[in-house]
Design brief:
homotrimer; alpha/beta; Glucose Oxidase, domain 1; Arc Repressor Mutant, subunit A; 3 domains; eight-stranded mixed β-sheet; 12 helices
Chain lengths: 438, 438, 438
């Protein structure tokens, strides 16, 4: 079986284009934190990677929260005096404020304006808005259109329903050699918005596909959830499973062309934090690593005080730091196949490193073993220095006490993980190392 | 009742002038480590804040030391050949070396000179000198006067007494909600010297006055002591009380216009150290924080190895670092009402922060609580960032594990203490926090 | 008896010349990891410092290794067609590859060339080579000579023997007041090479001589060993003694004029690491301190994972970092009497500091003791600062808790070890300190 190492047999260019195509399929769907948009999304995911789809009834108590009513929408518009649809849900689902209650009435321009949202700084863009926990209604339009509204009265119609139903989410579990899990979580509640977060969905799906076909030391759990209420619901219903989670990543905003950003887990020095930083450091590209802060995506729930799971957040440009964020400009043009491909590659590198980052124990700790008789000795150069392969072997022997991971050893030796990992392979074959049970 | 927060109802300009006036009353008194000067000083303090005055007999063993004989002086002079008082205790008590033994004799100029002290670099200033633990006598004069002495013989007279008596000190105890105490200690043994340390006395007295009128989580203990032997005596006689001392400050040199200096406790990272540094950092003014060193004022006794109390020293320009130090130039002109006022304000800010710096425990640690239903939710800005009030709430919820104080949380969040404290108040009202018993 | 302090009675200039002379005696001997060259070397050492000479039989199992056959050589040459010795072991023992097997045959130029080693970058120098663990033969020549070889056939003769015998090493043990030991280890397996490592041998011998004549708190163990197999052998046969080793130094490359280099023990913060760095820091000369790395000299065995002894390596220019390294240019001219003298001096300073670096406990920890009545009080200067002797006393009293060594106190106080040590002496005499048993 293949390993998780993306170098071995992986066409990232093709994967980038396929992810972009998949995002195009998901783009038109009107998603929210509940409803049929979520179900359609999960159904498209399910075609690519078998998914367990869970339905949690409205009213279910999940910690301090309650699963909300289910929201669905079939049509919505604002008609002018001539009866023309001047704002039309069928053109873009962003036009309706998410969780808008059903509505059909004639309103004055001034009343209408109280329910219209625009972005004055970007007058051609339509904003993304919702009102999950307060019953209300509204439309989002570009600012240019708002300015031109001149009729005295308008007909407003929202054919939505907000009633008891379910919160829907999807889960993929890939059993590995061990029950210890790596959690990959991504949110699926945004309507026609590409970077935030169809990019995260696509990368997670392709990651799951890839990992399902390779040998795995760890088990993997992928969660496709509405943000906040989704992760809270999952955590509330799955507390017994949390002790298996050894590492985790929230994936978001992975399709733009900005530099990568890794936001550390609340622990700050968890293995996932070291590994993600290592991969970015050796990527040869600009990147940013930030300490945890208690807002952002679902890492805020995984890293809440009572759980403090070792879950970081992997992004390119973070939420709110690109102007297209939560606007109609976060569209299919904004995200690039090459950017998605590179994001997937880095996720695979992080996972590959987690898979390989083992704690070894030197089986011959007293003095160096005689490497020559095992074919592992390489003579010093004329400066009296061992060549790099020999160095790796000497460092691993010197530090493999069961408390230093291979990444710790690489870090201490100032060598790359691959060099140290290669040395550990040689020593394992020679019977000089044993894996520390951990 | 008012809180210790100096912003609420406190006229610092007026306080500055009143402190200066109080110092003017104290200035003429001839203080030393024992004697009636100390008693007169404590009696003036007692008019402003009720004081317990303690008398410890000469000969009392206090650790490695013994309470010395009591020294009193009524007059002293040097007369020239014409019988004129050319050095006169009645003009300034600095003219006599403290603890000078009684003396009346005719001396040659050369003998006299062996008992005269001057400051050649500042020929117009009179130095301050004493000889506590070696029986001797002497006079301090300005260098210009020394040079002009030309008579062959002089009459020396010191009408002092050095006999069994008492060491006198004053103590104020303000009971708070808890028995845990904040110690404020200041020395009262210097004669006509203003910055060192009538300024410290004045600030301590006004601090005690202020605190006596407000609600207090902590109890407070103010000590007005002769330096070294006074704090040693107090520590020796009050060992049983030391476990109550949670924080402490030695106050000195608080009337000059130099930048503030905080000298850390020996522990270096005690809460008082963090709080004092925080207050200075947010003061918007230059300041200096130094690590502990085992000389200076009475912190050297509080921070001796066997006690290691969390006591720092709060000053403006430290002892020895201003030319007027221990000279007649450390007079009523050298200290300024505005400087005294600012010193008092900063002391109040430190104390207010200690009063408010609580360890909270999040009562809903698993995932975030639903803030909206408690009226604590504020929507994200267009950049997807929570406004500052929301940030404070999220940080407190995320870190209130009973091990992080509010100041620790502010530090980690990069927010001001007030912002974080406000958030904690909101969360307390919503029942989402409990104070950690500590 | 004298102390280890080299200042007291030590003529370093003379010692430098004597060490150089001693190296001249050792220089011609053909040493290897076994054989009579080692025995002759130990016999010359034995004339200067009584030595226990150990013989460990070929085949003895020492951890993962086996003591190899003993190698001896009496003559070796290559003759040209005219029968002239064009390569001659009698001119320099570097000409024969160490551990070359016996050989007598006629070879073609092309076969000969496969067994000739040169340094093209330094065509006038002869390299140093050996083949300990693979049976082979060869000659080392200067590159100029290699180029000029033009005869078709040559006569090769190596009169060596490689048979069961012994590995020989020398040991000096100097009993001190305590059984705890300082280990000094140096390798003796290099033939006519001066800096690496006749310099190390000479400094170790003179150090042993000096220490044998002074009072010692610690015991000392000097090891004169063939590198790698020697230290492995000693460790394997002396495991029971290792718990006595409190500090250790490997000595090498101490005769060149480069700056000093201290390579830390694997622990990185062992007392020897702090002490060696302190001595170099206060030497007023350039120096380098490097973290441990698992190649170099015998510290790689002492610091292997299973032992992790507090052993550093003291050098001037490290192995491989000077061009003359392992070539005929590392000769008697390359090393200087003054450089050897300075190396010895620094070793003595390190040892003196280890001898004096005591953990004290303040016997009067509550408040300062009254220094005046013990003659230890010195008045403050006009800046209110204690003079340096007083400072030392105050710092030692404040920090002598049994957990801070004198060096730790010096470091915290920003004072020199001598100043702090002097203060501790004064306090010991006054009965105010006790040595912590450690």
């Amino acid at each position: 079986m293949k390993s998780a190492d993306p170098d071995s047999s992986f066409d990232s260019v093709e994967a980038g284009h396929e992810m972009h195509k998949f995002i195009s399929e998901l783009y038109p769907i009107c998603r929210s934190i509940t409803g049929n948009g979520v179900r359609q999304t999960l159904s498209l995911i399910n075609k690519r990677i078998p998914l367990e789809i869970k339905e949690v009834p409205t009213g279910t108590k999940v910690f301090d929260w309650v699963v909300p009513k289910e929201w669905n929408i079939s049509d919505a518009y604002v008609k002018n005096a001539k009866g023309e649809r001047i704002i039309d849900f069928r053109k873009s689902n962003l036009h309706v404020v998410g969780y808008s209650i059903p509505m059909k009435k004639r309103v004055s321009l001034s009343e209408l304006k109280q329910h219209l949202f625009t972005i004055p700084e970007h007058p051609a863009w339509v904003p993304y808005r919702n009102s999950y926990y307060k019953e209300d209604w509204g439309f989002c339009v570009n600012h240019d259109q708002l300015i031109e509204l001149s009729d005295e009265y308008y007909e407003v119609c929202i054919e939505s329903s907000l009633k008891d139903g379910h919160l829907t989410y999807g889960e993929v579990h890939l059993q590995g050699d061990r029950d210890e899990e790596i959690l990959i979580s991504t949110h699926i509640c945004h309507p026609s918005l590409c970077n935030d977060n169809l990019s995260g969905i696509a990368v997670a799906v392709f990651l799951a596909q890839y990992l399902s076909s390779v040998s795995r030391r760890y088990s993997y759990r992928f969660l496709f959830l509405p943000t906040t209420i989704g992760s809270i619901t999952w955590l509330a219903l799955n507390e017994a499973k949390l002790s298996h989670i050894k590492h985790g990543l929230v994936l978001a905003c992975l399709g733009d062309t900005g530099a990568f950003t890794y936001k550390r887990s609340r622990r700050g020095n968890a293995e996932i934090d070291k590994v993600a930083e290592y991969v970015l450091k050796y990527s040869g590209r600009d990147y940013k690593v930030t300490d945890f802060y208690p807002y952002g995506y679902d890492e805020r729930q995984y890293c809440s005080l009572g759980f403090n799971l070792p879950v970081g957040c992997f992004m390119r440009t973070p939420n709110g730091q690109f102007p297209e964020y939560h606007t109609s400009a976060d569209n299919l043009d904004f995200i690039k196949p090459g950017a998605l491909a590179e994001s997937l590659e880095n996720c695979l590198k992080i996972i590959d490193l987690l898979e390989k980052n083992v704690w070894f124990v030197n089986q011959n700790p007293k003095c160096e073993p005689q490497l020559g008789k095992r074919g592992l000795y390489r003579p010093l150069n004329t400066k009296g220095e061992p060549p790099i392969e020999q160095l790796g072997i000497l460092w691993v022997l010197n530090l493999a006490d069961g408390d230093h991971s291979l990444l710790d050893i690489a870090d201490r030796a100032g060598m790359s993980f691959d060099e140290v990992s290669k040395a550990a392979d040689d020593l394992m074959r020679a019977g000089l190392l044993k894996i520390n049970k951990d």
